[in-house]
Amino acid sequence: MEYDREDAERNQDALWSFANLPVDIQEALSKKMAEVSSLEEFISSVMVGDCPKCGSEKTCDEDDLKELGDILKGICLACGHIFCVDCGGEYPCTCWEEKYSEGD
Questions:
Q1: Which of 20, 34, 54, 76 has the greatest number of C-beta atoms within 10 Å?
Q2: Which long-range CB contacts under 8 A does 46-54 form with residues at least 24 apart?
Q3: Is the pTM of this model over 0.85?
Q4: Distance separating alpha carbons of residues 97 and 93, to the nearest angstrom
């Protein structure tokens, strides 16, 4: 894999962003990274979160399961619950539309 200037700049931006997070957030992210076995698992745990129904950490989203068809749709691999990754409510939900249509 070739490492180019764009990658270096992106990494520098990420490090700067991380360094400017509150210390408690840095610690939580560092702890989570140490607990997972892959970058994909880390991203899923941070972006999707735990299942709102059973509390399992084994969740994924559209990036993990292409057949879901909606980036706001999360699924629990433990209990099968399908939920909105934005609000944690039952899927389908209208939280995204409600949040972003208010300024129209």
A1: 76
A2: 47/85, 48/74, 48/85, 49/74, 49/85, 49/88, 51/76, 51/78, 51/79, 51/81, 51/83, 52/81, 52/83, 52/88, 52/89, 53/79, 53/81, 53/83, 54/78, 54/79, 54/81
A3: no
A4: 9
Contact 53, 79 (CB under 8 A): yes
Ordered by start, the domain boundaries in the chain are 1-35, 49-104
Look up residue 89 and give its two tokens.
């409510």
Please write the tens of the pLDDT for every residue from 17-62: 989 999 999 999 999 889 888 887 887 778 888 999 999 988 887 6
Per the CB < 8 A criterion, the answer to whether 49 and 84 are in contact is no
Confidence label for 66 from pLDDT (cuts 50, 70 and 90)? low
